[in-house]
Amino acid sequence: MYSYQAVMARRPEIILRSVGIDYDRFSTGRLSFDYEGMMREAGYTLDEVRGIQAETGVGNTPLIELRNITRLVRSISPPGKGATILVKDEACNPSGSFKVRRASVSVYHAKRLGFKGVIAATSGNYGAAVASQAAVRGLKCIVVQEAYDSRGIGQPEIMEKARACEAYGAEVVQLSVGPELFYVFLRLLEETGYFNASLYTPFGIAGVETLGAEVVEQVRREYGRNPDAVCITHAGGGNVTGTARGILKTIAGSARPSRSARPTVIGVSVDLAGLHMASDSDFNRKSFTTGHTGFGIPFATWPDRSDVPRNAARPLRYMDRYVTVTQGEAFYATEMLASLEGLERGPAGNTSLAAAVAIAREMDGDQIIVVQETEYTGAGKHPTAQLTFARRNGVEVRRGNPAGSVPGRSIIIPEHPAQMSVRDLELDRIRASLIRNAVRNSGVSEVTVEDVRFLAEETRRDDGFVTSVLSDLGVTIAGGG
Fold first, then answer.
1. Strands of 63-65's sheet, edge to edge?
2. Could you report the per-residue pLDDT of 8-61, keeping only the tens digit for each?
3. Who contacts 104 (Cβ-Cβ below 8 Å, separation ≥6)?
4. pLDDT tens for residues 312-364?
5. Does the predicted TM-score (pTM) go above 0.90?
């Protein structure tokens, strides 16, 4: 009854009971489903989410102009270049990160449906966010983490997050890296009857939409215009998806046109190319537990790998540009934010700041770029703890040109801000991978016209791009289209 195969076979019924969404209702084709219909019927409106979050003090975080960093950026930019850099200080939220926006709606919904508790599978800030909201709403909470390698050694950042979860009253189940995470998660859902506070339901994504809305509203209020670009740390896709949807909804609902209709949405990940996230030997050779390419690429190219059948986080629908930074650059941005702006925040939350410093140098001096999050920092999240841990695991840490960094082998911290840069990933290759994964995972050799349109929406490309990729895969279109 509790063998791995038996539990996995019961996955659809466990998920249905623990989330309360019949995902089959939204299927429209062999590959396609009604994404917006799912978001409308299973989620909450922007105004409803604002009300839910206001009850627990979530949201309405400050938007801060980084005057000293902007001045520094302009001093190393070509004449006339150097955009104003703003940061949304999400560390001011309860539990210290934007993740509480996601958790606030999921926990509210769980209580509304009568669940006695919530469960989340996460090694990131989301665990503390769910625990915090469960504490406020009077629900039990269990957080399941991948915490250790096979030697029983855990990263200081994950240990800090476990401490935070327990401080909020949650039970923390810690596992070693490997495939047992999802199995244990399903078993706990089945045994407790708790709500699945997944990162990837419409509730969680709706919670992040207020962040995008606030970015637009606050920039308009202070500067009389929309931002030109927004940098969003990308891992599982929810941060990009929710923030971008909030931006678009707010702009679409504007009574008057503004100077820049839609800011460029830039996804940013820490480059961990070559490290496998499920590898025991690689697990402790990275300094960032989220916001990196180990999640960013797989979830962009196949969103439905999540713990629910249809992931509400679908970043390729919204990203205009996808860039990477190195671990050393994110640590350097953390030092820069503290020493120049007096804001000590966690390194993972400064991933987008590292990218913004480089991208601002490309932009005109009268433009605005927003970094849409910070995160709290604590003992295990400090750069000193993480870099010491990296050294103990054989990773070289030194100053120099970060372009020479090799994930898992070296962390090179810049000696000068002019050494900070971004590496653009080719979005069309990632889009083609999404189409390829959709075909392979569904096992189809023929698709419908509706499937083609769905894939065009998924990739923000036209039907011609989709049909070209399908043709290369030997997939035909029903009716000869």
1. 63-65, 84-88, 368-371, 229-233, 264-270, 321-325, 423-424
2. 899 989 999 999 899 999 999 889 999 999 998 877 999 999 999 999 999 999
3. 49, 52, 53, 56, 58, 129, 133, 207
4. 999 999 999 999 999 999 999 999 999 999 999 999 989 999 999 999 999 99
5. yes
